[in-house]
Target: Murein biosynthesis integral membrane protein MurJ
Amino acid sequence: MSSFSSLARSSAIMTAGTMTSRVLGFVKASMLAMAIGVTAVQADAFDIANKVPNTLYMLLAGGVVNAVLVPQIVRASKREDGGADFTNRLLTLSFLLLAGVSIIATAAAPLLVWLYSSGWSEEQMALATAFAFWCLPQLFFYGLYTLLGQVLNAKSSFGPYMWAPVLNNVVAIAGLAVFILIFGTNNASPHGLDTWTPDKIALIAGTATLGVAAQALILIWPLKRIGFRYKPTFGFRGVGLGSAGKVAFWTFAAMLIGQIGFLIISRVASGASIPGDGNASNAAYTNAYLVFMLPHSLIAVSLATALFTSLAKNAAEEDTEAVVGDFSMGVRMVGMVNTFALAALVVLASPVAMIIAGPGREQAMAIGLVIITMVFGLVPFSANYLAQRVFYAYGDAKTPFLIQLPQIIFQSLAVLSVSIFPKSVTVAIIGLVMSLGYLMAMIISFAVLKKRLGAIDLRGILTSHVKFLLAAIVAAGAGFGLLYFFPDFALAGRWQAFITTAAVGTVMLLFFIGACYLLRVRELHSIIGVVAGKLRKTA
Model:
């Protein structure tokens, strides 16, 4: 079983990296808006060109690489050479595939821009295509970053993978600063379609790609520090890559049906938009999903990344008891944080929505309702994410696909049927449907895991979550009580919403921690023990 202190330390390092990257990401977005605007045609052109490589990578390889590399490298490490030959062949094959796809995608830039746009003028299409020629090589560097990062994760070096995106944002921010310094802001000197020269295009799009390249290449240094030396090795038959191919196939299939499900949600949410009525539509769904994913990406992803290597090692050694112990600990730790996030976001949904989407009381309340219905699925969503990592640790990607299939079918059919409800609550109903789908997937995953492993410490998981829920109710009561005294201030503007969220959220956290302490929540006491031990060492 993983050492709790080691797991907590690794998760904290990764969470800090993710948080820093998110903050710099907001800075980058603000500077980009200052440089070329938000609603201007040139902003749309750059947005499409810069998003296409990321979207293509996530569809074609993102989840595949994450599911395949760590378990395969961990299992190969038992070979006489420590898995060096296998890892070199796997990386060589992956690099070749990435390079080939990236070259084809870059050459097809005009076609890709046409696919992702609609109703644009020839001038706007030409500008977006010029941006895309500079941006599409990002596809290769996104892949390189993930490949090298997963090798580091397999070697239990977690921090660099989560901190590397910080460098990406720093480089991109520097590029935007130079652009503003040389060419001015969009307000001071509007950058219309007829003003874009090759040097302007190269500066803003080239530095965006340079940031992604830096994010990938910086990982070479920590790889050298842990003693990994990559040597291009060809010959891909008869060396055990077949199992990796099977995992990749089922992971890609799962991502594909997931994209189909999101496409249905997007189209139905778009249909809820009626000009001038203030209904929550696709933009509201996007903002609510951003809020929903924040606690998951900060906590569940960081902890699962640190836990995945241990799960893969224990699975390879057929140590079922250790696998069950790691899984139970992971679900309980993530559940404690997510249960507080659930309470906080239910209470502060509208102020949080105003911080993200801007002022407007009706808009904030509409998005807030979507956040509330969506966030009820946070705990099962993260729990199922951890369950998937157990399957992947055993080299099994088919079972997660078979579990996801009924979930997507249920969610898609339910979303398509929301037309019977008023358009004013369409997206909120979609959020509720998603939550139910996540709950269904978690129940199926836990049932299959219990059958496969013999036990998953279900009693311990449920007992802990009941205590989390009681503590969350106490924290929510305190939060609602505070909001009762200044209901108008909370939604008076963006800064007022931020102050409200910070103040009420802090009080709720103190009440949650206090309640967990009185309920003798072992996860909290474990954290207190680790912190106390660190303080004693530094004293």
Q: What stands out?
A: Residues 253 and 401 are 7 Å apart (CA to CA). The mean pLDDT is 82. The two ends are 29 Å apart (CA to CA).
